[in-house]
Design a protein that fits this description.
alpha+beta, 4-stranded antiparallel sheet, 37% helix, 20% strand
Length: 205
């Protein structure tokens, strides 16, 4: 079970070690990557995860969501740099959606770098993803990769620019047929870089 608190401009989360279900070597590697993020990358927030006796304590700089009526492609430059950086260092976020990407005075910021993408939450074993923004095939195989991040990023752009309604969301959640929205199969979509995904999403918004 996670406990969340706020103090001195930071958000703290405490994870029970037994609730993190990925192999320990994967968890330790993710934590190492998170603790050594390049802080010059514009979309990142200062984050440190420390290990205690039976838990991990997650500390991330708190940021406040700003309101913006419409986004232009240029607004995403820092976010593109960040997602490209993630791919270069082999870090899969897993849950790129509106609750985890905030528009701030400094541009988009990505929140919530989970120490394990597979956890016990509310008594259920589950991936730390949000329906329907993931690859159905990946979940079937029991893995989450950059394909899920790319799919989620595409829908994030559609959602914040009004190109994907709640009704569309309900229908997609029933079928998980991303090809209808993406215009191509998941495998081909996964070959696109983030800049191309941004361009395609704006064309479809």
């Amino acid at each position: 079970m996670r406990r969340v608190t706020y103090k001195d401009g930071y958000i703290y989360k405490s994870y029970s070690r037994q609730d993190l279900l990925d192999p320990i070597e994967i968890i330790e590697n993710r934590i190492k990557i998170i603790n050594h993020f390049d802080e010059s990358i514009p979309g990142l927030l200062n984050t440190i995860i420390t290990e205690e006796e039976n838990s991990y304590v997650y500390r991330q700089k708190y940021c406040k969501q700003q309101k913006k009526q419409f986004y232009e492609e240029a607004d995403f430059s820092g976010l593109l740099e960040t997602l490209t950086y993630f791919q270069q260092i082999g870090f899969v976020h897993g849950d790129l959606n509106r609750k985890n990407i905030f528009w701030t005075k400094e541009g988009f910021k990505i929140l919530d770098y989970e120490p394990s993408l597979y956890q016990l939450k509310n008594g259920k074993k589950q991936f730390m993803i949000t329906k329907p923004y993931f690859s159905k095939e990946e979940v079937k195989r029991g893995e989450i990769s950059f394909l899920t991040d790319k799919i989620a990023f595409y829908y994030f752009i559609l959602r914040i620019n009004g190109g994907f309604s709640n009704r569309n969301l309900v229908e997609l959640t029933k079928t998980f047929n991303h090809q209808v929205v993406l215009g191509m199969c998941e495998k081909d979509f996964g070959q696109l870089n983030y800049k191309t995904i941004l361009t395609v999403a704006f064309e479809n918004s």
